[in-house]
UniProtKB/TrEMBL annotation, chain A:
The keyword Transport does not apply. This is Tripartite tricarboxylate transporter TctA. The chain crosses the membrane at residues 20-49, 109-132, 138-162, 169-187, 199-221, 354-378, 390-417, 469-490. The lineage of its organism: Bacteria, Bacillati, Actinomycetota, Actinomycetes, Micrococcales. Residues 523-533 have a biased composition (Polar residues). The keyword Repeat does not apply. Residues 507-540 are annotated as: Disordered. Residues 20-438 form the DUF112 domain. InterPro entries: DUF112_TM (IPR002823). Pfam families: TctA. PANTHER family: TRICARBOXYLIC TRANSPORT PROTEIN. It comes from the Bacteria. Keywords: Membrane, Transmembrane, Transmembrane helix.
UniProtKB/TrEMBL annotation, chain B:
It holds the Pfam family TctB. Residues 17-159 form the DUF1468 domain. InterPro entries: DUF1468 (IPR009936). The lineage of its organism: Bacteria, Bacillati, Actinomycetota, Actinomycetes, Micrococcales. It comes from the Bacteria. The chain crosses the membrane at residues 12-29, 49-69, 90-106, 112-129, 136-158. This is Membrane protein. Keywords: Membrane, Transmembrane, Transmembrane helix.
Automatic annotation (TrEMBL), chain C:
This is Universal stress protein. Residues 3-128 form the UspA domain. CDD domains: USP-like (cd00293). SUPFAM superfamilies: Adenine nucleotide alpha hydrolases-like. Belongs to the universal stress protein A family. It comes from the Bacteria. It comes from Zafaria cholistanensis. PANTHER family: STRESS RESPONSE PROTEIN NHAX, UNIVERSAL STRESS PROTEIN UP12.
Amino acid sequence: METLNLLMQGFATAATPMNLLFALVGVVLGTAVGVLPGIGPAMAVALLLPVTYNLEPTSAFIMFAGIYYGGMYGGSTTSILLNTPGESATVITAIEGHKMAKAGRAAQALATAAIGSFVAGTIGTALLVAFAPLVVKFAVSLGAPTYLAIMVLALIAVTAVLGSSKLRGFASLGIGLAIGLIGLDPVSGQQRLIFGQPLLIDGLDIVVVAVAIFAVGEALWTAAHLRRKPMSTIPVGRPWMGRQDWKRSWKPWLRGTAYGFPFGALPAGGAEIPTFLSYITEKKLSKHPEEFGHGAIEGVAGPEAANNASAAGTLTPMLALGLPTNATAAVMLAAFIQFGIQPGPLLFEKEPDLVWALIASLFIGNTLLLLVNLPLAPMWAKLLRLPRPYLYAGILFFATLGAYAVNLQAFDLVILLVLGSLGFAMRRYGLPVLPLIIGLILGPRAEEQLRQSLQLSGGEISGLWSEPLAIVIYCIVVVVLLLPLIIALVRKARGGRPSTLEEVTMGATPEAAEHHAVHRSAGTRNPQDTENATENKEKV
Amino acid sequence: MSALTTRLRGKSELGIAALLGILGAVVLWDGLHLQTTFSQTDPVGPRTMPIIVAGILLVCAVLLAVNVLRGGSGEAEEGEDVDLTHPSDWRTLLPLVGAFVLNIVLIDVVGWVISGALMFYISVWALGSRRYVRDALISLALSLATFYGFYLGLGIPLPAGPLEGVL
Amino acid sequence: MSVVVGYIPTPEGEAALERAIREARSGGTLLVVVNTSRGDALVDQRFIQQQQAENLARRLEAEGVEHLLLQPLRGHDPAEEVLEAAREHHADLVVIGLRRRSPVGKLILGSTAQRILLQAEAPVLAVKA
């Protein structure tokens, strides 16, 4: 009941004309960056951080929330119309959605993605409302050792589970932790990694680092590898769905939501696994399994819902514990720090207005997305024709402007370029950037908890596992680290049967991708026929 | 010598391992120079975290070097607008970085409007646009708009340089 | 000897192609179809994809003209590519399509057609959609 009251107050704050305007700006901006190649929600929020310096934090976060949800919406639009998944979470959408679009059902694919996103986003946000206060209530009773354990888990999970190479993940984490050390030690006041450079005493501005890694590094990387062969989008009118489409979509939406939310809430759960799981489930349950790989609407509805629900899930640990689990959440946490707001379980207590207005704005933003974007899909597709010199030069321009505006000193631009080059090199050599950012954000906080833990125990190292929950979490950390080893052993024992997860990743998509390849090579020989064949199957 | 060069060819990733190693060494060196006076209120002290971080970095450096020498390599990042079939295009990259550096040098001298416009113009050219007049107009409009936007909208006075008083 | 046509999948492009086919057939010469893009955007609807290219080839075959489809992607202006194809294949005719444009629209953009008209060495036939 109390939660409901707080939420209503949140709506009152978020529904002021000014904040509604910010939500609208966020939603439109988010969709645009989702559609545009080479720029995503994390980069957009990073670029906007300096601009929001003088804004009311609540308004800024309302806008960021819009960007986060809008980015996902825009990403699915390009996946469907262009077959270029911008991120791994939309790979599945691209497989089925693009097939649908090619078969002349782009309008339905876009509609089921949009409405599914709305349904999943709304339910996901409702789950956030229900669970976040519970998590907070539980979390405030925890001591420093358990917090430290949770942070270690978050750092390890993001590093070890995501990305193809653990080693490179840990390298990235180490760099992030090292950057986090720069500045004055908060307890003893000693200078760390400053090298007599007075401008470094306050540490590297987290905004500058985020802009460098996400915007400058990405823009330089893309600029060095520009796609020269233009693609063409599939022309589309206003998205709509027929009765049959609704009937086939609503269950996948709900099931996708059920997959997405918990995975999003887990550290390193992400959006990728639930979209795969949703796809597999829908394929199994569908009355038209033969359509999968050729444009089945369930294969768009489920994964898209899972994707958006996981976004809502991600916000649960971010708001309740101050733990970022993906890039956008990490940058939003950086924004909290910029505004001088301490993230963590006390956030709900100390900044209830902000938190509940943010959550209310998620409901509003979700609805706005649907209302604004359903009629505008054809316009978004046109955005892809923006000449990229302007796009990438613009990213560099605004990155520079933002980093400079933080302190008005050219020194920050030197840092921006150095770290931007680092971001470039990391992309070149396959070092994931997410562990770096999360290490930078969580590193100093983990150190604080470490010191508090041992202070409580009077220097006894056993203070680290003085709370039962901490022990449990460290056990999970060990399992996460050893999981690949365990899987390998189990497989050996069973004689080479692939695990479920591998079935998902190896089995499902490449199979569909194979369809793709077969289809394409057949298309070279006699395109008209194959195309017709697909279309016939579509209508069955 | 030649055997060594052939072995090292295509192993530029060793540079990353070296970078990690240097970074780890620097963090360690800096950490060991911190003064620790044992106190009841802070038994961990300022040195522990740097030593842990340095440890992670050094271990990663060694493992990465071994991994690369054994033939491992990181997967370059894919993207919507990224075509990995051709190598890094230095003829785009170098002028872009040049524009960036020029901006760093000029911004406090000639102000944001001029240096920002210049940076955008050179970047657009580096990225392949050849509509010189239109690009110049857009560059100028963009830097003027951001200058006034930051000044009037956000209250952040970007440097005006020699245009002080004109703008 | 050849007929060079700048082709884009729009009404004016189709009109130009149709006329070029007729010219090539009556002259019994090679038809060089140039379809290009500066490639400076992720999406360019004027650049025809494999599927469309195959359809085009089939259509030209059905028309019975000897043809060549060029799709250069060198980051050059479309005008430049058409001009170069005309030089290389010793064109005795260049065919381009024109959009009916308002005087204001003409002011803003330097058009591809204008450049070809001014710089081509061969006679240029401009077809309106």
